[in-house]
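quick one before i forget lol
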Amino acid sequence: MRKIRAEELHLMMDSKVIFTLIDARDTKEFGKEHIPGAVSLPSDRLGKNVLVQRRKTETFVTYCTDLKCDESAQAAKKLERYGFKNVLELRGGLEDWKKAGFPTER
């Protein structure tokens, strides 16, 4: 897994790169605030059966709250164990996204 910064994720979004943005926090936290376009998929619920329809070449970006949170790393490692090749983790998570001045949704 490669770590990316908020600016790189924002550039991916602006460039219309096709990827799935996974918010690895619990659904309650997702409901309070998340990055636009993210899907709520807590790392503890991320199972192989959830991703059965996905191609192994798809790109995934995971994130959680901040540098102290390890949910996004756990989700990214699971994705790699399931055979996905293009897995990225947003370094600093939602906190760094907001510090960079990018929008969130509720």
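fyi The helical segments are 6-14, 27-32, 71-81, 93-99.
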